[in-house]
Amino acid sequence: MKRISILIAILTALVCGSAPAQNYVSIGAGDKELSSSPPDSKAGSPVLEDRNHRYRLRAGDTFDVDFTLSPEFNQTLSVQPDGFGSLKGVGTIPMEGKTLPELTEAIRQAYAHILHEPLIVIVPKDFDKPYFTATGQVSKPGKYDLRSDLTITEALAVAGGFNDKAKTSQVVLFRRSSGGSFEGRVYNLKKLLASRNLSEDPRVLPGDLLFVPQSTYSQLKPFMPTMSTGVYYNPAHY
Fold first, then answer.
1. Which of 80, 42, 33, 45 is nearest to 61 (CA)?
2. How many whole angstroms separate alpha carbon 176 and alpha carbon 50?
3. What is the DSSP letter of 95?
4. Helical H runs in the chain?
5. If you ran DSSP here, which 8-state letter would residue 68 be given?
6. Mean model confidence pLDDT for the chain
7. Which residues of the chain are modeled with pLDDT < 70?
8. CA 98, CA 181: separation in Å to the nearest integer?
9. Contact at 8 Å (CB) between 97 and 85?
10. What is the pTM of this model?
11. What are φ and ψ of residue 151, in 5° steps?
């Protein structure tokens, strides 16, 4: 939650500040680096990294390992807090961060000196379910299970939709890159919905964070004169 709070503070400064909003932001793994321009300006608008969709093991995950031809080696394993797991008869190997195919190969190699080309099947038992987080100016901010493929607009609908303070033209999608840093991209959902073409509506991946900033108009509204003064304000300009 501390990391999410830091992200929200940075996003609020970026999107709601007086400077024009950028289309790209990147935060380092230590939350110390902030860039408002893409790494390669010659490449044009950056593309948000599309991570491997396969689930990667985390500390605390539990799974069964079945050896089809050597059932005496069947076992139940857990990813320990240090990221390692203990295999029967061969010791420990690193497990955290691996996909199931990667772990299957790692276990096969660990038993190579005991078994000849063992057939291994891994069955997850207890693992961290895929999720996304929606925060900012949505009706129901929070962490939600990602039960199926969702786009940004669908995910925000799950979070109750926008509230009346939302700046829908600058919704930010944050995604953790393979290097551990966060990459963000600003999407104009106001324009996307107005076009009635959702074919360009980006898909949400496990671990994504959606941030909806507050519009400048809603921040200034309490200090604006009422309509009785004869002054007209157009919210679209804010």
1. 80
2. 10
3. -
4. 2-16, 100-110, 152-158, 189-194, 216-220
5. S
6. 77
7. 1-53, 178-180, 217-238
8. 18
9. no
10. 0.55
11. -95, 175
Instruction: List, in sequence order, every residue forming a beta bridge with 185; answer none if it has no partner.
Output: 24, 173
Instruction: For residue 26, give the nearest of 17, 13, 39 by alpha carbon.
Output: 39
One-character DSSP codes across 105-154: HHHHHHTTTTSSS--EEEEEEE-PPPEEEEEESBSS-EEEE--S-EEHHH
Structure tokens at 222: 């309490």
Q: Dump pLDDT digits (tens) for 204-220.
A: 988 899 999 998 766 66
CA torsion, ordered 37, 40, 41, 42, to nearest 10 deg? -170
pLDDT value of position 65: 96
In the chain, the amino acid numbered 89 is G
- Residues 165 and 97: their CA atoms lie apart, in Å, by 39
Give 3-state DSSP helix, strand, coil % of the chain, rounded to 5.
25, 25, 45
The predicted structure's pLDDT at residue 127: 75
Q: 209, 7 in Cβ contact below 8 A?
A: yes
